[in-house]
């Protein structure tokens, strides 16, 4: 193979590799849809008393609506999971949590990863 042809293939490869999208595995910790109201409230209480800023789920906060235990618990459970190293143990919540791979953010309410 000639050096010009080899150089062409190397340059073409570099251009092609540069445009390959990088796939990342982002995950969020959410409340299980079948979790009881008591468990959801316990999860909120636990996360909010262990370093999570829960002002976003308070009246006037960007994640207050919808005003449901499921929505509020999911937001703070994810915040706890993300702020505690994204390790499996930080998304257990007494087996009332699950991981999702689709961003649950909506409107101004951003679920961080």
Automatic annotation (TrEMBL):
The keyword Lipoprotein applies. Residues 27-111 form the X8 domain. The keyword Ligase does not apply. It is a lipid-anchor; GPI-anchor. One of its GO terms (cellular component) is plasma membrane. Residues 1-25 form the signal peptide. It is found in: Cell membrane. Pfam families: X8. Keywords: Disulfide bond, Glycoprotein, GPI-anchor, Lipoprotein, Membrane, Signal. It comes from the Eukaryota. This is Glucan endo-1,3-beta-D-glucosidase.
